[in-house]
Design a protein that fits this description.
The protein has 10 helices and 8 strands. It is α/β, with parallel strands linked by helices. The structure holds 1-deoxy-D-xylulose-5-phosphate. 1-deoxy-D-xylulose-5-phosphate (DXP) binds at residues 14, 16, 37, 64, 66, 91, 125, 151-152, 178-181, 200-203.
């Protein structure tokens, strides 16, 4: 459950950098997503026509604060997004450095505290750090969005053991992998590990065929969720015969 919403699809899609608005609309349709994220700053540049297109797509809009570097910028952007899109949802990004695009955990927690107290449902873009995650929950966030890898890098699950620890530590808290996913197999792996959803943008927007890639990610995310819910076998260090030896004829 992502706040008050239980989506069928666990695929959350970004809307930046597509070759055209038409390709974006087709990719959203092929992805089966019910939640799209929109950067207020970029959207603001593109104007009202883009906003009208997004509103016509029959998906929930999760505005984001991409490009914000301070608490003040992020809070102001979130407040503008609430008015523009008529939603209390906000994907909170407070970036620590323009080159790494790594979240600033101190500013993130402070901004989350202010926005939660102001009635927002905050989706915080964070790292796999457990203490930062705890502080975000204390601030009032009901879910966390750990990165897979730096935004736009396509590196996949860069710290897989850290993400495993995070999944185990925050039992029952929805965790959505956000950013750095480059291939459908990486998204499937995250779902198999027990994550609740995948948010990505670049891997679809910059694919040679974004519409087809959106479909590929949709299949992979669905497969990963199915595997997770079916109960995966435990990994073993040693072999275990898959064929029973009971009843075999004895030769002497
Ligand atoms: C679109 C968005 O909200 C960002 O968090 C980010 O752009 C997603 O990361 P990738 O582009 O690496 O998928």
């Amino acid at each position: 459950m992502f706040y008050d919403f239980q989506p069928q699809s666990r695929f959350l899609l970004g809307t930046a950098g597509y070759p055209s608005p038409d390709v974006l609309a087709q990719a959203i349709s092929a992805s089966g997503t019910e939640i799209i994220t929109v950067s207020l700053r970029r959207e603001g540049n593109a104007g009202g026509a883009f906003r009208e297109l997004l509103k016509s797509l029959n998906t929930r809009i999760l505005p984001n604060t991409a490009g914000c570097h301070t608490v003040k910028e992020a809070v102001t952007t979130a407040q503008m997004a609430r008015e523009l899109f008529n939603t209390s949802w906000i994907k909170l990004e407070v970036i620590g450095h323009a080159d790494t695009l790594q979240p600033d955990p101190f500013a993130l927690v402070e901004a989350a505290r202010i926005l939660c107290a102001d009635g927002f449902n905050v989706f915080p873009y964070t790292t796999e750090d457990l203490i930062v995650g705890e502080k975000l929950l204390e601030a009032g966030c009901e879910l966390l969005m750990p990165w897979g890898a730096p935004i736009g890098s396509g590196q996949g699950l860069r710290n897989i053991e850290g993400l495993r620890s995070m999944r185990a530590w925050f039992k029952g808290i929805p965790l959505i992998i956000d950013a750095g996913i480059g291939a459908p197999s990486q998204a499937a792996q995250a779902m198999e590990m027990g994550f609740d959803g995948i948010l990505l943008n670049t891997a679809v927007a910059k694919a040679r065929d974004p519409v087809r890639m959106a479909g590929a990610f949709a299949s992979a995310i669905h497969a990963g969720l199915e595997a997770q819910q079916a109960g995966m076998m435990e990994r073993r260090d040693m072999a275990a015969a898959s064929t029973p030896i009971f009843g075999l004829a004895e030769f002497s």
